[in-house]
C-alpha cells in the first residue's frame, strides 16, 4: 500500500471528491472523435519523419514547424527508413475515415510512434495541424527551447463538417503587405481554415495590378487602377473624423506579389478567393478610369465637396458602374479574365453588395454579365447575398450571406441550385467590438458587443430557415477594414473569435460545447503568444 502514497486508513471510498474531469487537450477546432490513453510519446534525437505516398509536403511542413523550437534534426525519410520510433505520415486511398476522403485523417500516438494517415495532402496537413496543437506550446517559438517534447497518447479520427472554412480580409480600405498577409495566413492555418478570401477592390482603393491588354480598342489605361487607386485608402468618416487610429494604409499587389500570396496560402492549405466588387463599391475604379464615368455612374459629390468621384470616406453604397456604358462591360470582361488567370482555385467573387445607387434593372444587367463571364472563364462565381436576386448560373453559383433573412438566398438554392457560404454579420463580423475595452469597431451587428460566446453559439444548418446542411458550403469570418490598420490590430479584433468560426466550420454541432470551447481557447493562449498572434484577452476566458 505504501507505494500508492496513502495508508489504508486514509483511503475512504465514499467521501473522496469526484475525480477532476479529464483535462481537455487544447484542440481547436475540436476533432470529431478523440480517445486518450495514459502517457505520452517523448521525442528524442533519433526521431525521423517518414513520408509515404503524396505526404512529402506535409512532412516538410511539420519538420519546418518543429525544427527551430525542438532543435531536433527531424530528417525526412522513405517508409521504414527513419528508425524504430518515427513520425509516419502516409497519404494513400483508404486511409481517411470513409466518406471523408478529401480532408479527413487519422492520428495515432502510442509508445511505438506517431502515425498520421490521410487520403490526400490536404487531409495530411489537417492532421499535422492537430499534431501541432498536441505538442507543447513552445513549438510555436522560433528559438530552441529546452523542455521535454512529448505528445499525449491519442487516437483521433477527424474530418470537417463543411468544405469551406474561410477568412475574408479587406485589403481595399486599408492595405496589407504581402508579409502581413503571410502573417495572417500563419495565424489562420493552425485552425484548419482552408479559404482566404481577399477583398481586393472597393470605393477606397484598388489593390491588384492589371496589365494593359495587347488589344485595347477602348483605350482604357488599366495601369491607372493601381497608379492612382493603389495609392488611396480609407481615411475619414463622411463627417470628416479619422477612422481608426491612423490613416488607412495604401499600396497594391503586383501580379508577382499576388502569385506569392497564392503560393504561400497553398502551402498552408488555403485556397485564395479573389473578390472584385461590382457594380457598387467601385469608386476606386471610377476614379482611375475616365471611360467608366458616364451619365449613369456614381458617385455624386458628397456634401461639402465639389468634385467627384470622391475617395477615402467610410460611406457605403455611393458608387456604381453605368449599365448603359459599353466600357463597363469591356472593363468587367478584361479584369475578370486577368484575375481568373491569376487564380488556380475554383472560385471568383464578384461582390454585388450594397449597390444602392443602381436601379434593380441595371444591377441585374451588370451582375448577370459578370456571373456569365466568370462561368465562361471556367470558374464558380461567388457573390454577396444581394446578388441572389439575379439570374445566377444553374448549379454553379455560391451565395455568401451576410445580412437579411435569407429569403432570396433560399430562392437561389431552390431554383438555381446555389450553395451558401454563411457570414452572418452578428456571428462572423470580426471588426465589431468584442467588449467595451476594444476602442475601435462597430456595434451594429449584434446590437452591442459581438462576444466570443455569441460567435460560438450558432448552427449553420439552421441559420437560414429552409436551407439545409447539404446546401451550405461553409462558413467565413469577414474582416472589414474601415477601422483597422495593420496586422496587430487585425489580430486583436479577429482573435480569439476566429477560433469560434473555425469550430463552426469543422466540428459537428453535437460536438460543440461552449464551456469546453472556452476552456480550450484559454489553453491556446500561450501558444498564440509564442506564435506572436496579438489576440484580444477576452474577459470570460481563463487565459493560461
Ligand atoms: C457592409 S458586408 C459591407 C462592407 C462594409 C461592412 C462593414 C458587405 C458585403 N458589405 O462594405 O465594410 O458592412 O461596415
Automatic annotation (TrEMBL):
Keywords: Glycosidase, Hydrolase, Signal. GO terms for molecular function: beta-N-acetylhexosaminidase activity. Its EC number is 3.2.1.52. The active site is at residue 354. It is an enzyme of class 3 (hydrolase). Belongs to the glycosyl hydrolase 20 family. This is beta-N-acetylhexosaminidase. The chain holds residues 165 to 708 of 912 of the full protein.
Amino acid at each position: 500500500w505504501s507505494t500508492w502514497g496513502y495508508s489504508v486508513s486514509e483511503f475512504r471510498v465514499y467521501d473522496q471528491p469526484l475525480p477532476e474531469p479529464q483535462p481537455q487537450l487544447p484542440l481547436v477546432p475540436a476533432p470529431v472523435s478523440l480517445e486518450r490513453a495514459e502517457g505520452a510519446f517523448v521525442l528524442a534525437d533519433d526521431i525521423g519523419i517518414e513520408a509515404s505516398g503524396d505526404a512529402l509536403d506535409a512532412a516538410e511542413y511539420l519538420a519546418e514547424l518543429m525544427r527551430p523550437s525542438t532543435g531536433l534534426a527531424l530528417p525526412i525519410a522513405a517508409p521504414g527508413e527513419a528508425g524504430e520510433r518515427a513520425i509516419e505520415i502516409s497519404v494513400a486511398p483508404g486511409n481517411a475515415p470513409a466518406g471523408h476522403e478529401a480532408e479527413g485523417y487519422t492520428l495515432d500516438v502510442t509508445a511505438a510512434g506517431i502515425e498520421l494517415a490521410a487520403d490526400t495532402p490536404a487531409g495530411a496537413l489537417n492532421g499535422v495541424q492537430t499534431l501541432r496543437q498536441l505538442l507543447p506550446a513552445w513549438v510555436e517559438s522560433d528559438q530552441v527551447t529546452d523542455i521535454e517534447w512529448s505528445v499525449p497518447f491519442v487516437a483521433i479520427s477527424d474530418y470537417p463538417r463543411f468544405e469551406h472554412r474561410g477568412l475574408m480580409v479587406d485589403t481595399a480600405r486599408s492595405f496589407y503587405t504581402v508579409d502581413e498577409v503571410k502573417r495572417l495566413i500563419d495565424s489562420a492555418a493552425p485552425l484548419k481554415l482552408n479559404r482566404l478570401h481577399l477583398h481586393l477592390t472597393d470605393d477606397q482603393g484598388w489593390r491588384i495590378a492589371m496589365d494593359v491588354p495587347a488589344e485595347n480598342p477602348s483605350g482604357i489605361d488599366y495601369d491607372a487602377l493601381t497608379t492612382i487607386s493603389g495609392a488611396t485608402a480609407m481615411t475619414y468618416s463622411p463627417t470628416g473624423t479619422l477612422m481608426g487610429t491612423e490613416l488607412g494604409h495604401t499600396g497594391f499587389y503586383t501580379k508577382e506579389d499576388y502569385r506569392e500570396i497564392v503560393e504561400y496560402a497553398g502551402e498552408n492549405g488555403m485556397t485564395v478567393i479573389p473578390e472584385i466588387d461590382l457594380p457598387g463599391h467601385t469608386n476606386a475604379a471610377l476614379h482611375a478610369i475616365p471611360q467608366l464615368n458616364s451619365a449613369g455612374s456614381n458617385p455624386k459629390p458628397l456634401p461639402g465637396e465639389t468634385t467627384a468621384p470622391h475617395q477615402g470616406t467610410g460611406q457605403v453604397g455611393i458608387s456604381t458602374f453605368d449599365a448603359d456604358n459599353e466600357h463597363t462591360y469591356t472593363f468587367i470582361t478584361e479584369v475578370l479574365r486577368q484575375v481568373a488567370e491569376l487564380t488556380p482555385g475554383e472560385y471568383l467573387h464578384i461582390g454585388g453588395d450594397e449597390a444602392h445607387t443602381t436601379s434593380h434593372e441595371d444591377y441585374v444587367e451588370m451582375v448577370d454579365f459578370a456571373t456569365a463571364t466568370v462561368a465562361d472563364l471556367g470558374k464558380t462565381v461567388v457573390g454577396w447575398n444581394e446578388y441572389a436576386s439575379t439570374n445566377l448560373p444553374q448549379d454553379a453559383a455560391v451565395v455568401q450571406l451576410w445580412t437579411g433573412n435569407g429569403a432570396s438566398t433560399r430562392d437561389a438554392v431552390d431554383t438555381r441550385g446555389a450553395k451558401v457560404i454563411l457570414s452572418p454579420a452578428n456571428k462572423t463580423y470580426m471588426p465589431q467590438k468584442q467588449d467595451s475595452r476594444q476602442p475601435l469597431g462597430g456595434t451594429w451587428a449584434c446590437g452591442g458587443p459581438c462576444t466570443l460566446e455569441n460567435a460560438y453559439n450558432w448552427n449553420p444548418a439552421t441559420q437560414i430557415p429552409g436551407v439545409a446542411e447539404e446546401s451550405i458550403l461553409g462558413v467565413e469570418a469577414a474582416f472589414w477594414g474601415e477601422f483597422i490598420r495593420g496586422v496587430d490590430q487585425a489580430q486583436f479584433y479577429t482573435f480569439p473569435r476566429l477560433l469560434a468560426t473555425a469550430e463552426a466550420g469543422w466540428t459537428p454541432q453535437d460536438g460543440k460545447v461552449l464551456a469546453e470551447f472556452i476552456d480550450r481557447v484559454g489553453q491556446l493562449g500561450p501558444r498564440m503568444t509564442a506564435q506572436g498572434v496579438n489576440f484580444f484577452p477576452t474577459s470570460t476566458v481563463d487565459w493560461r
